[in-house]
Amino acid sequence: MKAEIIRLLKESDGYLSGQELCGRLGVSRTAVWKVMEQLREEGYQIEAVRHKGYRLLEAADVLTEAEFAACMSGRRLGKYLDCNDVLDSTNNRARQLAEKGALEGTLVTAETQTAGKGRRGRSWVSPPGTGIWFTLILRPEILPAFAPMLTLVAALAVAEAVEEVCGLPAKIKWPNDIVLSGKKICGILTEMSAEYDRIHYVVIGIGINANMKEFPDEIRETATSIYLESGRTVRRGLLVASVMKHMEHWYEKFLETSDLSGMKAEYTDRLINQNRNVLVLDSKGEFQGTCRGIDDKGLLLVQREDGSVEKVMSGEVSVRGVYGYV
Ligand code: BTN
Asked: For the whole prediction, is pTM greater than 0.70?
């Protein structure tokens, strides 16, 4: 009922009378009043005027089941919610839930993480209230070797959502960092449980620097937030809902072919590396070249000076002018 009330308040231009709400929800006026009180406690600013009814002045910036249920539009992803105040890591929690049988589309969120995980064993700074830390559980029927492509699917979804909700020109640094003005606003960590030919589950953990006003010294030069780039705070629930909508679209396309052929053009359009000099540090050593997009499997195409094209599978790829590589 809470989610339904949030949705009705958001959809309404003016006041919603108590009588109308009771009629639509089939509950008593007291029940409606109690939910309004709960919502106020959560931070929603709701005006109540005699003989007129209730009006939403400002929605709360909270990551709660009710807030998500009121703004999610997808059918498949974000269908089941597990919203938490404090977790060590949303990826860890998602893995535990997946082990116990949580369904595809389950979304785990936390207001703060005490041991947020980054790629390559790094930690991920996850302060309360300002960022968005969430993990999506998927159970794709694809070969385990194809799972890393899902990280690129998620990167495109986040970049599109940031542009849709915040109006900012979000770029992707291959394979999966989202970048604004040459600094990172989002990282993605994909983990998987699989047999050699079958995936049990994949968890895609996404960390978005949404409303942070500052960063610790170690990452100040390389990280930024949506707030710092736009001067406006973003409603985090809206952004997560938009990520789920875009992710659902691209995930379905990905499943049709088990590769990235259906989204390669859109991904490449956002690729900050494209046609720029890149420095590749991979298992074979270090070399420089010009980025020529990705192939259908998400490998980075890097053209050497002699014209030959290398396919880079993983490793660090630095781009001139991004994160301080000059
Ligand atoms: C990176 O190093 O770029 C990946 C960072 C991924 C961070 C997110 S925050 C939500 C999820 N839970 C984690 O512990 N990590 C991911």
From this structure: yes
